[in-house]
Design a protein that fits this description.
Order of helices and strands: HEHHEEHHEEH
CATH superfamily: Histidine kinase-like ATPase, C-terminal domain
Strand content: 15-25%
CATH architecture: 2-Layer Sandwich
Oligomer: single chain
Distance between the termini: 31 Å
CATH topology: Heat Shock Protein 90
Number of helices: 6
CATH class: Alpha Beta
Strand order of the largest sheet: 1-2-3-5-4
Shape: globular
Number of strands: 5
Radius of gyration: 17 Å
Low-confidence stretches: 1-14, 23-29, 160-170
Length: 170
């Protein structure tokens, strides 16, 4: 996917989620921070942001895309971020040992937690797998709450053998 110059938008015409994510990538090297609207389309914009930042060859790109999508979706569904005017802020911080993913939401009635129903229901549950996936794929994860909102974060590690892989052996 190629990077393109962001379109100019007058103040009364907000940029789309994809354009905001692209603009954030063009203006920053790392970490990348982008404020997205609290709409379902922002999960796609966050996935695109991760792929553009890390590149297709990064050993953790697919895992980071999945995790950031789950965290953004949870923020929209389970917090005030999903209400009209709500926002989600995504921060991606790549480093030599992995990627730190942070998603800030507008707060809600409860703390993010792994759904016991999803953990024990097997294939019959239709929802509740988001944090179960994050827990399985991340080295660590947690939440930090304040009166202004909440940050759910995780660290996706990159094994030394993955970063120094010489390629196929003959």
């Amino acid at each position: 996917m190629t990077m393109r110059a962001p379109a100019f938008h007058a103040p009364d015409q907000p940029a789309s989620s994809d354009e905001r994510a692209t603009t954030a990538l063009q203006q920053a090297k790392a970490p990348v921070l982008c404020v997205l609207p609290g709409t379902p389309e922002s999960a796609s914009a966050a996935r695109q942001m991760a792929r553009q930042l890390l590149g297709d060859g990064h050993p953790a790109v697919e895992t980071v895309q999945l995790v950031v999508s789950e965290l953004v979706t949870n923020a929209i569904v389970h917090s005030k971020s999903g209400t009209p005017g709500g926002t989600v802020t995504v921060a991606l911080c790549p480093g030599s040992g992995g990627v730190l993913v942070q998603v800030r939401d507008d707060g809600g009635p409860s703390e993010p937690r792994i759904s016991r129903e999803a953990a024990y229901a097997g294939h019959e549950a239709e929802q509740g797998y988001g944090l179960l996936l994050v827990d399985a794929l991340a080295d660590r994860w947690g939440t930090i709450s304040s009166p202004d909102g909440r940050i759910t974060w995780c660290r996706i590690g990159v094994q030394a053998s993955e970063t120094n892989d010489p390629g196929p052996r003959s």
